[in-house]
Amino acid sequence: MNPFVDGDISAKFLTGNAYRSPGLRAGLVSRMLPSVSFYSHLFLGPVRWLCRRAARGLCDDAAWVYASVWVADLMERLGCPVEVQGMDAIDAVDGPCLFVANHMSTLETFMLPGIIRPRRPVTFVVKQSLTTMPFFGPVMRSRDPIVVGRTNPREDLKAVLEGGVERLRKGTSIIVFPQHTRSPVFDPHQFNSIGIKLARKADVPVVPLALKTDAWGTGKKIKELGPVKPGMAVRYSFAPPLRVAGQGKEEHAAVCRYIAEHLAQWQRADGVNG
Protein backbone atom coordinates (compact mmCIF):
# COMPACT_ATOMS: atom_id res chain seq x y z
CA MET A 1 0.00 0.00 0.00
CA ASN A 2 1.31 3.45 -0.92
CA PRO A 3 0.24 6.03 1.70
CA PHE A 4 0.54 8.84 -0.86
CA VAL A 5 -2.21 7.45 -3.09
CA ASP A 6 -5.21 8.66 -1.14
CA GLY A 7 -7.19 10.69 -3.61
CA ASP A 8 -5.46 14.03 -2.99
CA ILE A 9 -2.88 15.90 -5.04
CA SER A 10 -0.01 13.92 -3.48
CA ALA A 11 -0.42 11.26 -6.18
CA LYS A 12 0.15 13.82 -8.95
CA PHE A 13 3.45 12.36 -10.16
CA LEU A 14 2.55 8.69 -9.70
CA THR A 15 1.83 8.50 -13.41
CA GLY A 16 4.22 5.79 -14.55
CA ASN A 17 7.42 6.71 -16.34
CA ALA A 18 6.46 10.25 -17.34
CA TYR A 19 4.30 13.22 -16.39
CA ARG A 20 3.25 16.09 -18.62
CA SER A 21 1.06 19.02 -17.59
CA PRO A 22 -2.40 19.26 -19.09
CA GLY A 23 -2.97 22.32 -21.25
CA LEU A 24 -3.19 25.25 -18.85
CA ARG A 25 -3.29 29.00 -19.35
CA ALA A 26 -2.27 31.54 -16.75
CA GLY A 27 -4.93 33.89 -15.45
CA LEU A 28 -4.88 37.63 -16.12
CA VAL A 29 -3.22 38.58 -12.81
CA SER A 30 -0.59 35.85 -13.21
CA ARG A 31 0.23 37.12 -16.68
CA MET A 32 0.41 40.79 -15.67
CA LEU A 33 2.08 40.40 -12.25
CA PRO A 34 3.56 36.89 -12.30
CA SER A 35 6.00 37.20 -9.41
CA VAL A 36 3.52 39.01 -7.16
CA SER A 37 0.85 36.45 -7.94
CA PHE A 38 3.14 33.45 -7.48
CA TYR A 39 4.83 34.51 -4.24
CA SER A 40 1.57 35.62 -2.62
CA HIS A 41 0.03 32.23 -3.37
CA LEU A 42 3.25 30.45 -2.35
CA PHE A 43 3.64 32.07 1.06
CA LEU A 44 -0.06 32.19 1.92
CA GLY A 45 -0.52 28.64 0.66
CA PRO A 46 1.97 25.75 0.93
CA VAL A 47 4.71 27.62 2.81
CA ARG A 48 2.41 28.89 5.57
CA TRP A 49 0.60 25.55 5.76
CA LEU A 50 3.80 23.54 6.03
CA CYS A 51 5.50 25.95 8.46
CA ARG A 52 2.54 25.75 10.81
CA ARG A 53 2.76 21.98 10.74
CA ALA A 54 6.52 22.08 11.31
CA ALA A 55 6.04 24.36 14.33
CA ARG A 56 3.70 21.73 15.81
CA GLY A 57 6.02 18.85 14.97
CA LEU A 58 3.66 17.62 12.24
CA CYS A 59 5.86 18.09 9.18
CA ASP A 60 5.96 14.43 8.19
CA ASP A 61 6.65 12.94 4.78
CA ALA A 62 3.01 13.08 3.70
CA ALA A 63 2.82 16.81 4.50
CA TRP A 64 6.12 17.44 2.73
CA VAL A 65 4.88 15.74 -0.43
CA TYR A 66 1.51 17.51 -0.29
CA ALA A 67 3.15 20.94 -0.08
CA SER A 68 5.66 20.02 -2.77
CA VAL A 69 2.97 19.06 -5.26
CA TRP A 70 1.03 22.19 -4.30
CA VAL A 71 4.03 24.25 -5.46
CA ALA A 72 4.08 22.34 -8.75
CA ASP A 73 0.41 23.21 -9.19
CA LEU A 74 1.19 26.89 -8.61
CA MET A 75 3.79 26.78 -11.37
CA GLU A 76 1.29 25.19 -13.73
CA ARG A 77 -1.24 27.90 -12.92
CA LEU A 78 1.37 30.40 -14.14
CA GLY A 79 1.20 28.62 -17.47
CA CYS A 80 4.54 26.86 -16.88
CA PRO A 81 4.19 23.31 -18.24
CA VAL A 82 5.84 20.66 -16.07
CA GLU A 83 7.45 17.66 -17.74
CA VAL A 84 9.05 14.75 -15.88
CA GLN A 85 10.73 11.90 -17.75
CA GLY A 86 12.35 8.64 -16.68
CA MET A 87 10.55 8.13 -13.37
CA ASP A 88 10.92 4.38 -13.78
CA ALA A 89 14.55 4.96 -12.76
CA ILE A 90 13.36 5.95 -9.28
CA ASP A 91 11.73 2.54 -8.90
CA ALA A 92 14.50 0.59 -10.66
CA VAL A 93 16.81 0.65 -7.65
CA ASP A 94 16.44 -2.06 -5.01
CA GLY A 95 17.36 -0.05 -1.93
CA PRO A 96 18.54 3.54 -1.41
CA CYS A 97 20.43 5.55 -4.03
CA LEU A 98 22.00 8.93 -4.80
CA PHE A 99 20.18 11.36 -7.06
CA VAL A 100 22.91 13.58 -8.54
CA ALA A 101 21.58 16.70 -10.27
CA ASN A 102 22.45 20.13 -11.55
CA HIS A 103 21.13 23.02 -9.46
CA MET A 104 19.31 25.78 -11.31
CA SER A 105 16.85 27.42 -8.89
CA THR A 106 14.89 27.13 -5.67
CA LEU A 107 12.14 25.31 -7.52
CA GLU A 108 13.78 21.88 -7.53
CA THR A 109 14.16 22.00 -3.75
CA PHE A 110 10.41 22.47 -3.52
CA MET A 111 9.35 20.09 -6.29
CA LEU A 112 11.61 17.04 -6.05
CA PRO A 113 10.06 15.72 -2.81
CA GLY A 114 6.70 15.50 -4.55
CA ILE A 115 8.24 13.55 -7.42
CA ILE A 116 10.54 11.20 -5.52
CA ARG A 117 9.16 10.69 -1.99
CA PRO A 118 5.93 8.92 -3.04
CA ARG A 119 8.22 6.25 -4.51
CA ARG A 120 11.01 6.11 -1.90
CA PRO A 121 12.24 7.89 1.26
CA VAL A 122 14.56 10.77 0.43
CA THR A 123 16.35 13.80 1.87
CA PHE A 124 18.79 16.47 0.66
CA VAL A 125 22.32 17.67 1.09
CA VAL A 126 21.73 21.36 1.88
CA LYS A 127 23.75 24.40 2.85
CA GLN A 128 23.47 25.41 6.48
CA SER A 129 21.75 28.72 5.74
CA LEU A 130 18.67 26.87 4.43
CA THR A 131 18.16 25.27 7.84
CA THR A 132 18.20 28.58 9.72
CA MET A 133 16.34 30.98 7.44
CA PRO A 134 12.75 32.06 8.15
CA PHE A 135 9.92 29.95 6.73
CA PHE A 136 12.12 27.29 5.11
CA GLY A 137 14.36 26.54 8.11
CA PRO A 138 11.97 24.59 10.36
CA VAL A 139 10.70 22.59 7.39
CA MET A 140 14.16 21.73 6.14
CA ARG A 141 15.38 20.73 9.61
CA SER A 142 12.44 18.35 9.96
CA ARG A 143 13.66 16.43 6.88
CA ASP A 144 16.90 15.27 8.58
CA PRO A 145 19.11 16.70 5.81
CA ILE A 146 22.87 16.48 5.53
CA VAL A 147 24.07 20.00 6.30
CA VAL A 148 27.20 21.59 4.80
CA GLY A 149 28.69 25.00 5.50
CA ARG A 150 30.11 25.68 2.01
CA THR A 151 33.14 27.38 3.59
CA ASN A 152 35.45 24.42 4.25
CA PRO A 153 35.44 21.82 1.45
CA ARG A 154 37.20 19.23 3.60
CA GLU A 155 34.66 19.54 6.41
CA ASP A 156 31.80 19.44 3.88
CA LEU A 157 33.16 16.23 2.34
CA LYS A 158 33.42 14.65 5.79
CA ALA A 159 29.85 15.71 6.65
CA VAL A 160 28.47 14.33 3.39
CA LEU A 161 30.35 11.03 3.57
CA GLU A 162 29.59 10.34 7.24
CA GLY A 163 26.04 11.69 7.27
CA GLY A 164 25.28 10.23 3.87
CA VAL A 165 26.37 6.71 4.73
CA GLU A 166 24.32 6.88 7.94
CA ARG A 167 21.13 7.87 6.14
CA LEU A 168 21.65 5.49 3.24
CA ARG A 169 22.08 2.60 5.66
CA LYS A 170 18.73 3.55 7.16
CA GLY A 171 17.17 3.25 3.69
CA THR A 172 16.90 6.96 2.88
CA SER A 173 18.00 8.06 -0.57
CA ILE A 174 19.77 11.41 -0.97
CA ILE A 175 19.49 14.27 -3.46
CA VAL A 176 22.85 15.95 -4.12
CA PHE A 177 23.52 19.18 -6.03
CA PRO A 178 27.32 19.13 -6.57
CA GLN A 179 27.49 22.67 -7.97
CA HIS A 180 28.81 25.45 -5.78
CA THR A 181 25.73 27.57 -6.39
CA ARG A 182 22.55 27.76 -8.46
CA SER A 183 23.16 28.54 -12.10
CA PRO A 184 21.04 28.60 -15.27
CA VAL A 185 24.14 27.40 -17.15
CA PHE A 186 25.76 24.02 -16.56
CA ASP A 187 29.54 24.09 -16.18
CA PRO A 188 30.99 20.60 -15.63
CA HIS A 189 34.14 22.17 -14.16
CA GLN A 190 32.00 23.56 -11.31
CA PHE A 191 30.26 20.20 -10.80
CA ASN A 192 32.23 18.27 -8.20
CA SER A 193 32.25 14.51 -7.64
CA ILE A 194 30.96 14.47 -4.07
CA GLY A 195 27.88 12.44 -5.05
CA ILE A 196 30.00 9.82 -6.80
CA LYS A 197 32.34 9.61 -3.79
CA LEU A 198 29.41 9.06 -1.44
CA ALA A 199 27.85 6.43 -3.71
CA ARG A 200 31.20 4.63 -3.89
CA LYS A 201 31.70 4.69 -0.13
CA ALA A 202 28.15 3.53 0.63
CA ASP A 203 28.06 1.08 -2.31
CA VAL A 204 24.78 2.41 -3.66
CA PRO A 205 23.83 3.33 -7.25
CA VAL A 206 23.68 6.82 -8.70
CA VAL A 207 20.62 8.09 -10.59
CA PRO A 208 21.65 11.06 -12.78
CA LEU A 209 19.06 13.84 -12.88
CA ALA A 210 18.97 16.69 -15.38
CA LEU A 211 16.65 19.58 -14.60
CA LYS A 212 15.65 22.92 -16.07
CA THR A 213 13.85 25.08 -13.52
CA ASP A 214 14.79 28.64 -14.44
CA ALA A 215 11.10 29.52 -14.68
CA TRP A 216 11.78 30.44 -11.03
CA GLY A 217 14.73 32.80 -11.34
CA THR A 218 17.46 33.66 -8.85
CA GLY A 219 17.03 36.93 -6.99
CA LYS A 220 19.70 39.64 -6.83
CA LYS A 221 19.29 40.40 -3.13
CA ILE A 222 17.55 37.25 -1.93
CA LYS A 223 18.51 34.32 -4.12
CA GLU A 224 15.41 32.33 -3.22
CA LEU A 225 13.06 35.12 -4.35
CA GLY A 226 13.88 35.70 -7.99
CA PRO A 227 11.55 36.66 -10.84
CA VAL A 228 9.05 34.06 -12.01
CA LYS A 229 8.60 33.65 -15.75
CA PRO A 230 5.12 32.55 -16.85
CA GLY A 231 4.94 30.13 -19.72
CA MET A 232 8.50 28.81 -19.36
CA ALA A 233 8.70 25.01 -19.22
CA VAL A 234 9.87 23.18 -16.09
CA ARG A 235 11.67 19.95 -16.95
CA TYR A 236 13.15 16.95 -15.12
CA SER A 237 14.73 13.83 -16.59
CA PHE A 238 15.99 10.83 -14.61
CA ALA A 239 18.56 8.47 -16.16
CA PRO A 240 18.86 4.74 -15.45
CA PRO A 241 20.93 3.96 -12.33
CA LEU A 242 24.72 3.70 -12.53
CA ARG A 243 26.96 1.55 -10.35
CA VAL A 244 30.25 3.19 -9.41
CA ALA A 245 33.32 1.18 -10.38
CA GLY A 246 36.88 2.02 -9.37
CA GLN A 247 37.39 5.71 -8.62
CA GLY A 248 34.15 6.68 -10.33
CA LYS A 249 35.67 8.97 -12.96
CA GLU A 250 33.70 7.39 -15.80
CA GLU A 251 30.44 7.59 -13.85
CA HIS A 252 31.06 11.24 -12.96
CA ALA A 253 31.70 12.02 -16.62
CA ALA A 254 28.52 10.14 -17.57
CA VAL A 255 26.44 12.22 -15.14
CA CYS A 256 27.91 15.47 -16.51
CA ARG A 257 27.31 14.34 -20.07
CA TYR A 258 23.70 13.37 -19.35
CA ILE A 259 22.94 16.76 -17.80
CA ALA A 260 24.71 18.77 -20.52
CA GLU A 261 23.01 16.87 -23.34
CA HIS A 262 19.53 17.28 -21.87
CA LEU A 263 19.98 20.98 -21.17
CA ALA A 264 21.13 21.51 -24.75
CA GLN A 265 18.16 19.51 -26.03
CA TRP A 266 15.71 21.51 -23.93
CA GLN A 267 17.24 24.81 -24.98
CA ARG A 268 16.74 23.86 -28.61
CA ALA A 269 13.17 22.75 -27.92
CA ASP A 270 12.41 26.02 -26.13
CA GLY A 271 14.10 28.11 -28.82
CA VAL A 272 16.94 29.28 -26.57
CA ASN A 273 20.48 29.57 -27.83
CA GLY A 274 22.92 27.62 -25.66
UniProtKB/TrEMBL annotation:
Q: Which CDD domains match?
A: LPLAT_AGPAT-like
Alphabetical list of Pfam families matching this protein: Acyltransferase
Keywords in alphabetical order: Acyltransferase, Transferase
Q: Among its keywords, does the record have Flavoprotein? A: no
InterPro entries in the record, alphabetically? Answer: Plipid/glycerol_acylTrfase
GO biological process terms on file = phosphatidic acid biosynthetic process
Supply the name of the protein.
1-acyl-sn-glycerol-3-phosphate acyltransferase
PANTHER family named in the record: 1-ACYL-SN-GLYCEROL-3-PHOSPHATE ACYLTRANSFERASE
Origin species, per record, is Desulfovibrio legallii
Domain called Phospholipid/glycerol acyltransferase: residue spans: 97-214
Pathway listed:
Lipid metabolism
Can you name one GO molecular function term for this protein? 1-acylglycerol-3-phosphate O-acyltransferase activity
- Keyword Acyltransferase (UniProt): yes
